[in-house]
Backbone:
């Protein structure tokens, strides 16, 4: 008790502070509520929301939106019969296209059908600027066209093209919100029930995480309004995952320490204050490191990556704030009974038992170099699997279940193998339109080219390549056009894919070193060492390589995924490094705390593992499970990202953090803290003789299980 502080004062504070905090949070929810509800209105999944900001294809798309009539919705009606189209089929197709033309204003009037050489397919290019840039109206147009273009008498009809593909992609992203949230909540709830073994306690952090997610939505909307931050289905989904995953991790650490302090303090308020003082610095440091790592994505040129950085940081920080303020207040108000039936009684001692992490620590103590070398070889071997990752992901392979637009694209690719079915969009200055058109027609690989809309000083030219979409031949044609047409922009679906791959490669070269340097500097400041931070960073990079390698062994051979998302390497690296270092801070913070208290290096390392192992394992399971939810979504890029991060977190939790980092710490002894003050203190091993220090008493092995 501080001087001048009475028991009545302390009791009054213990009652007032939690209720005041609850009142503050009610005010925050009321303030944020209207903004959180608007997040969906600023979420967009248009191509330009994912494209690189400075690429040719992005500039072409922006200029096309400003041409007369605004943004064009392009579709392709594909009529197909395996045995060959009949005259009745052709009549049906012509009638349906005419009906679509009557219902909607099509560019160029009623289009003419383009038959395939084998007579099995008839293609009708359809385009309209009737909806403009309104995504809702674009989707309605595609839906209206599909309602008219129906199968009839064995004739298969599919609507594809850029507009239909965008509608199908948007439908998948729109479906993420509900299922993603519900599945995440269910997964976290089950894990918390198993971890806490209480009918009540599991619900408290889950409710707080839900409130934090609501808060993050309001903050994300505010960022969009203030700074124009890109909000996409992918980034908002990952934000929710991080709120529940990282937020629940912080709750696990706090509740574990709070349970421990309740045995030492009679009043819950005093126990919570002690718990916050004990684990607060580690939680603040780890969450700050994760946020800084994610914010490094702001250096990316890809719009989707650049927008994911701040939204991911918002998710982590909102989870942190809620778990460090609202969760303590609720737990204090509920008192000890929230732990029922395993209530920690004041003055009691936890049951002594030899934990799994004690066994792991013992093996690391006996043969640290053997364990370290074996683990390094295993991770290296797994990383070799990354050479088996499938090639770049094509648009038609980006869905787990093929929608109608992809079926149409596949039919076109088979029926028109020697011609492109999707246009390459060339945007050229109006005064050079004829010259550009002549150059385009003379470019090898170009099948046909026609001028389109003109306005605002620009002319649109639609180009069809001789090669199939996203083939090597079409890619070569696009690169030739870009080399020849200086001052013009070359866009379209295939050009966008080329720009995505090139920009991801560029972003990786910039963001990866930036993340490594930023995280390393923060760890140096936190741990007062160069060796310990380097150890943690090397460990998480090894985990990333091994996780990608496992992906290479699973994606195509087991899951049948035919391509790898170009952004998988960069995004998985950022998340695994940031989140892996997060757990490393929990372990190293306790190890440093034990060393500062005078513990011998080996004892400090093993005690840190025993006291934090249970919490880190529980937190790792929760975080891996929340990211694994993404593998149930309908887009390959989300499936791959969720798989790699979930596998990486599990590797980090149960192999790297428990065995390898601990073994390295035991082997390095005080060199781990070089050049800090801890590295210069006398090593007790020098005074204990060849046998080394004895293992600490078994009682210390019982601390820290959540």
Residues:
């Amino acid at each position: 008790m501080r001087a001048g502080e009475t028991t009545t004062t302390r009791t009054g504070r213990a009652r007032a502070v939690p209720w005041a905090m609850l009142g503050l949070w009610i005010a925050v929810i009321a303030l944020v509520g209207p903004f959180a509800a608007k997040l969906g209105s600023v979420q967009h999944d248009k191509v330009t929301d994912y494209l690189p900001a400075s690429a040719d294809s992005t500039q072409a798309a922006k200029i096309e939106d400003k041409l007369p009539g605004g943004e064009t919705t392009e579709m392709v009606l594909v009529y197909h019969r395996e045995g060959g189209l009949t005259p009745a089929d052709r009549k049906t197709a012509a009638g349906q296209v005419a009906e679509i033309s009557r219902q909607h204003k099509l560019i160029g009037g009623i289009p003419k059908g383009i038959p395939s050489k084998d007579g099995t397919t008839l293609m009708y290019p359809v385009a309209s600027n009737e909806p403009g840039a309104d995504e809702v109206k674009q989707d309605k147009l595609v839906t209206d066209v599909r309602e008219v273009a129906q199968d009839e008498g064995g004739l298969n009809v599919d609507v594809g093209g850029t507009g239909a593909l965008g509608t199908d992609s948007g439908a998948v992203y729109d479906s993420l919100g509900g299922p993603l949230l519900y599945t995440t909540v269910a997964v976290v709830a089950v894990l918390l029930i198993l971890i806490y073994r209480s009918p009540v306690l599991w619900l408290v952090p889950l409710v707080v995480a839900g409130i934090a997610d609501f808060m993050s939505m309001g903050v994300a909307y505010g960022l969009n309004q203030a700074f124009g931050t890109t909000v996409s289905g992918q980034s908002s989904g990952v934000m929710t995952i991080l709120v529940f995953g990282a937020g629940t991790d912080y709750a696990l650490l706090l509740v574990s320490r709070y349970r421990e302090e309740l045995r030492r303090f009679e009043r819950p308020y005093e126990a919570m204050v002690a718990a916050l003082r004990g684990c607060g610095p580690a939680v603040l440091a780890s969450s700050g490191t994760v946020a800084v790592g994610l914010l490094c994505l702001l250096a990316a040129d890809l719009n989707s990556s650049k927008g994911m950085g701040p939204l991911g940081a918002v998710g982590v920080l909102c989870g942190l704030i809620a778990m460090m303020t609202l969760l303590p207040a609720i737990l204090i108000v509920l008192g000890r009974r929230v732990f029922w039936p395993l209530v920690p009684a004041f003055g009691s001692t936890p049951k002594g038992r030899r934990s799994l992490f004690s066994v792991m620590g013992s093996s690391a103590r006996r043969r640290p170099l053997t364990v370290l070398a074996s683990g390094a070889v295993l991770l290296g071997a797994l990383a070799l699997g990354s050479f088996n990752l499938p090639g770049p992901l094509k648009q038609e392979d980006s869905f787990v279940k093929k929608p109608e637009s992809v079926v149409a694209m596949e039919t076109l690719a088979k029926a028109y193998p020697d011609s492109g079915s999707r246009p390459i969009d060339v945007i050229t200055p109006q005064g050079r339109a004829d010259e550009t058109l002549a150059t385009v027609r003379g470019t090898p690989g170009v099948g046909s080219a026609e001028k389109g809309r003109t306005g605002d000083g620009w002319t649109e030219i639609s180009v069809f390549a001789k090669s199939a979409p996203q083939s090597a031949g079409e890619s070569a044609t696009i690169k030739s056009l870009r080399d020849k047409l200086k001052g013009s922009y070359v866009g379209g679906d295939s050009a966008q894919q080329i720009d995505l791959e090139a920009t991801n490669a560029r972003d990786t070269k910039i963001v990866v070193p930036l993340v490594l340097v930023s995280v390393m500097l923060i760890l140096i400041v936190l741990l007062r060492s160069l060796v310990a931070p380097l150890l943690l960073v090397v460990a998480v990079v090894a985990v990333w390589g091994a996780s990608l390698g496992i992906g290479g062994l699973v994606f195509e051979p087991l899951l049948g995924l035919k391509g790898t998302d170009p952004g998988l390497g960069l995004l998985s690296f950022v998340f695994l490094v940031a989140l892996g270092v997060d757990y490393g801070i929990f372990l190293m913070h306790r190890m440093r705390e034990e060393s500062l208290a005078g513990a011998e290096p080996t004892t400090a390392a093993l005690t840190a593992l025993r006291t934090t192992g249970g919490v880190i394992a529980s937190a790792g399971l929760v975080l891996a499970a929340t990211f694994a939810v993404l593998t149930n979504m309908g887009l390959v890029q989300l499936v791959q990202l969720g798989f790699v991060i979930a596998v990486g977190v599990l590797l980090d939790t149960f192999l790297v953090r428990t065995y390898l980092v601990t073994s390295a710490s035991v082997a390095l002894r005080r060199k781990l803290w070089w050049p800090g003050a801890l590295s210069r203190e006398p090593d007790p091993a020098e005074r204990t003789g060849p046998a080394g220090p004895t293992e600490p008493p078994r009682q210390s092995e019982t601390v820290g299980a959540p």
About this structure: The chain has 20 helices and eight strands.
